[in-house]
Design goal:
The protein is α+β, with helices and mostly antiparallel strands. The protein has 4 helices and 5 strands; from the N terminus they run E-H-E-H-E-H-E-E-H. The chain has one domain: 3-Layer(aba) Sandwich (Glutaredoxin), CATH 3.40.30. Keywords: Isomerase.
Length: 112
Protein backbone atom coordinates (compact mmCIF):
# COMPACT_ATOMS: atom_id res chain seq x y z
CA UNK A 1 0.00 0.00 0.00
CA UNK A 2 1.33 3.41 -0.87
CA UNK A 3 0.61 6.79 0.68
CA UNK A 4 0.60 10.59 0.43
CA UNK A 5 -1.94 11.64 -2.16
CA UNK A 6 -2.02 15.36 -1.50
CA UNK A 7 -4.37 14.42 1.34
CA UNK A 8 -7.72 14.60 -0.47
CA UNK A 9 -10.62 14.37 1.96
CA UNK A 10 -13.68 12.25 1.21
CA UNK A 11 -17.09 12.45 2.86
CA UNK A 12 -19.60 9.60 3.26
CA UNK A 13 -21.97 11.18 0.73
CA UNK A 14 -19.13 11.19 -1.86
CA UNK A 15 -19.21 7.40 -1.69
CA UNK A 16 -22.91 6.85 -1.08
CA UNK A 17 -22.13 5.59 2.42
CA UNK A 18 -24.28 6.23 5.48
CA UNK A 19 -21.21 7.07 7.54
CA UNK A 20 -17.52 6.40 7.91
CA UNK A 21 -15.84 4.57 10.76
CA UNK A 22 -15.22 6.49 13.95
CA UNK A 23 -11.47 5.75 13.75
CA UNK A 24 -10.85 4.77 10.11
CA UNK A 25 -12.58 3.55 6.96
CA UNK A 26 -11.56 0.91 4.43
CA UNK A 27 -13.00 1.84 1.02
CA UNK A 28 -12.98 -0.93 -1.59
CA UNK A 29 -13.71 -0.36 -5.28
CA UNK A 30 -14.90 -3.66 -6.80
CA UNK A 31 -16.49 -5.05 -9.93
CA UNK A 32 -18.97 -7.90 -10.29
CA UNK A 33 -16.83 -10.66 -11.79
CA UNK A 34 -13.55 -9.78 -10.09
CA UNK A 35 -12.17 -12.77 -8.15
CA UNK A 36 -9.50 -10.70 -6.31
CA UNK A 37 -12.34 -8.35 -5.24
CA UNK A 38 -14.01 -11.21 -3.36
CA UNK A 39 -10.77 -12.12 -1.60
CA UNK A 40 -10.16 -8.44 -0.78
CA UNK A 41 -13.67 -8.17 0.69
CA UNK A 42 -12.89 -11.06 3.05
CA UNK A 43 -9.54 -9.54 4.09
CA UNK A 44 -11.04 -6.11 4.78
CA UNK A 45 -14.01 -7.54 6.68
CA UNK A 46 -11.65 -9.64 8.79
CA UNK A 47 -9.31 -6.75 9.59
CA UNK A 48 -12.23 -4.37 10.17
CA UNK A 49 -13.75 -6.76 12.70
CA UNK A 50 -10.45 -6.91 14.62
CA UNK A 51 -10.25 -3.14 15.15
CA UNK A 52 -13.08 -1.19 16.78
CA UNK A 53 -14.36 1.94 15.07
CA UNK A 54 -13.36 0.82 11.57
CA UNK A 55 -15.91 0.70 8.74
CA UNK A 56 -15.66 -1.18 5.44
CA UNK A 57 -17.38 0.51 2.50
CA UNK A 58 -17.57 -1.32 -0.82
CA UNK A 59 -18.20 0.67 -4.00
CA UNK A 60 -19.37 -0.85 -7.29
CA UNK A 61 -16.82 0.54 -9.74
CA UNK A 62 -19.09 0.26 -12.77
CA UNK A 63 -21.79 2.36 -11.10
CA UNK A 64 -19.35 5.05 -9.97
CA UNK A 65 -17.13 5.73 -12.99
CA UNK A 66 -16.97 9.49 -12.40
CA UNK A 67 -15.81 8.96 -8.81
CA UNK A 68 -13.19 6.45 -10.01
CA UNK A 69 -11.86 8.92 -12.56
CA UNK A 70 -11.75 11.68 -9.96
CA UNK A 71 -9.71 9.47 -7.63
CA UNK A 72 -7.52 8.16 -10.48
CA UNK A 73 -8.61 4.56 -9.89
CA UNK A 74 -7.88 2.41 -12.93
CA UNK A 75 -8.52 -1.16 -11.77
CA UNK A 76 -10.34 -3.31 -9.27
CA UNK A 77 -9.89 -4.04 -6.55
CA UNK A 78 -8.52 -0.75 -5.31
CA UNK A 79 -8.53 -0.04 -1.58
CA UNK A 80 -8.37 3.40 0.02
CA UNK A 81 -7.63 3.67 3.73
CA UNK A 82 -9.15 6.81 5.24
CA UNK A 83 -8.42 8.33 8.62
CA UNK A 84 -11.22 9.52 10.93
CA UNK A 85 -11.52 12.79 8.97
CA UNK A 86 -11.89 11.04 5.60
CA UNK A 87 -8.34 11.84 4.43
CA UNK A 88 -6.79 9.21 2.17
CA UNK A 89 -3.82 7.82 4.08
CA UNK A 90 -3.00 4.77 1.94
CA UNK A 91 -4.11 3.16 -1.28
CA UNK A 92 -3.52 -0.19 -2.96
CA UNK A 93 -4.41 -1.53 -6.39
CA UNK A 94 -4.90 -5.26 -6.57
CA UNK A 95 -5.51 -7.64 -3.71
CA UNK A 96 -3.72 -6.32 -0.60
CA UNK A 97 -1.97 -8.50 1.94
CA UNK A 98 -3.65 -8.64 5.33
CA UNK A 99 -0.45 -7.42 7.05
CA UNK A 100 -0.35 -4.37 4.77
CA UNK A 101 -3.97 -3.51 5.57
CA UNK A 102 -3.26 -3.78 9.29
CA UNK A 103 -0.20 -1.52 8.95
CA UNK A 104 -2.16 1.02 6.90
CA UNK A 105 -4.95 1.02 9.49
CA UNK A 106 -2.38 1.66 12.20
CA UNK A 107 -1.17 4.67 10.24
CA UNK A 108 -4.71 5.93 9.64
CA UNK A 109 -5.68 5.58 13.29
CA UNK A 110 -2.47 7.28 14.39
CA UNK A 111 -2.97 10.20 11.94
CA UNK A 112 -4.55 13.12 13.72
Amino acid sequence: MTGDYGSPVLHPDDLGAAEFGERATLVQFSSAFCQPCRATRRILADVGSMVGGVAHVEIDAESHLELMRGLDIERTPTVLVLDSRGRIVRRASGQPRKADVIAALGEAIGAR
